[in-house]
Amino acid sequence: MDVAAESAVATARRQLGQAAAHIDIDGGVIDRLKYPTKLQQVSVPLRRDDGTLEVFTGYRAQHDDVRGPYKEGGGLRYHPDVDAEECIGLSMWMTWKCAVMDLPFGGGKAGITVDPKTLSDGVVERFTRRFAEELRDVVGPKRDVSAPDMGTGPQEVAWFMDAYSMQQGETTPGVVTRKPTRVIGESYGHEEAPGRSVAIVTRAATEYYDWNIEDATIAIQGFGSVGTNTARLLDGWGADVVAVSEVDSAIYDLDGLNPESMEGHDEQPDMVSGYNAPRRTNAELLELDVDILIPSAVGTVLTAENVDNVRADMIVEGANGPTTFAADAIFEECGVPVIPDILANAGGVTVSYFDGLQDINRRQWSLQRVHEELEEEMLKAWDAVRTEYEGSGMTRRDATIAVALSRIGDAKEMRGLCL
């Protein structure tokens, strides 16, 4: 059964159960991982510029911290569809992602049910500072670290950090990552890291299947931070990026686009729709006859309703949860490899870890070093998943989650249960 409307947490639990069936892990650990350690729900009052008062609901899901503090890769989300189940599901995926990358973090997720497009900059600042106030007792550099996500960016997390620091009585940059780089000491290379990791894993996957990256045609749904950086890196390696899209428009040119000449949505909204190339819809982009499809926008775009029309030979997930459980199964039956999000887009949380190392040592790495270290970590994770996958009978997603579960299970066994 497909459930294009299935919640993130329902999908995450299905994936957990399927992967767990392939490995030797205590059933009690699996039962525990179906639920968050904590779910914080808060009311966030907001006075708009016209003086009217509204109250919004915010959430902070803290899934598991057996390997380290709760962490968001793409984190603080302002979106009308945010709810508790979405935050729990995304926090579960972050737990797997950190374990796959062998990082000393667990998974967390925060969000507010609001449309940020309806808010002025001044209102967003007041809103963000109040959210930090509401969460002050559950976050912190050694407890729970946030980052920007849909509807937020470096400025919002800078406000969040400042509000938290004021509450603590000392500057505490480690409570968030992906702050403005040159102003508050964030690591270089953080903004482009998720897209860069998608590109690195895409290239590794083509090598695994004996494809030549220079012969590959690629369609990328979403031309925000992830899609833009993925497209530019793959194009630089010789791949043909033939289609990209924004929210309301897609472009397609079989002769290849020039991502370097196109500004991403974060740089200039609606740039794609103004580019001189044949138009497509977002839905049509998913069904183009290309070698590699990279959904990098939102979740649940590949479903049982459209999976039979998808003609790509490989899917690499740039967004979180773009493939439903049922669509995943159909791709497997058809022999279409799906490289899962918790591996492919793990660059963000990995550079967050690098940022923490730089904070501890009070020394900033060069951009070149960040890129080199990220590639090393991504390929190390790719090799771990490949080893688990080969000859196992598992899907790539099962193998990826299995790597994570083995590491989490080992940590829980060593730490034991506090009674």
Automatic annotation (TrEMBL):
Keywords for this entry?
Oxidoreductase
Give one GO term, molecular function aspect: glutamate dehydrogenase (NAD+) activity
- State the Gene3D superfamilies in the record: Leucine Dehydrogenase, chain A, domain 1, NAD(P)-binding Rossmann-like Domain
Q: Which PROSITE patterns match?
A: GLFV_DEHYDROGENASE
Active site located where? Answer: 109
According to the UniProt entry, where is the signal peptide?
Answer: none
One Gene Ontology term of the biological-process aspect is: L-glutamate catabolic process
Report the superkingdom from the record.
Answer: Archaea
Q: Where is the Glutamate/phenylalanine/leucine/valine/L-tryptophan dehydrogenase C-terminal domain?
A: 187-416
Q: Name one Pfam family in it.
A: ELFV_dehydrog
Positions of the record's site feature: Important for catalysis: 149
Which protein family is it in?
Belongs to the Glu/Leu/Phe/Val dehydrogenases family.
Oligomeric state and interaction partners are given as: Homohexamer.
* Name assigned to this protein: Glutamate dehydrogenase
Native species = Halarchaeum acidiphilum MH1-52-1
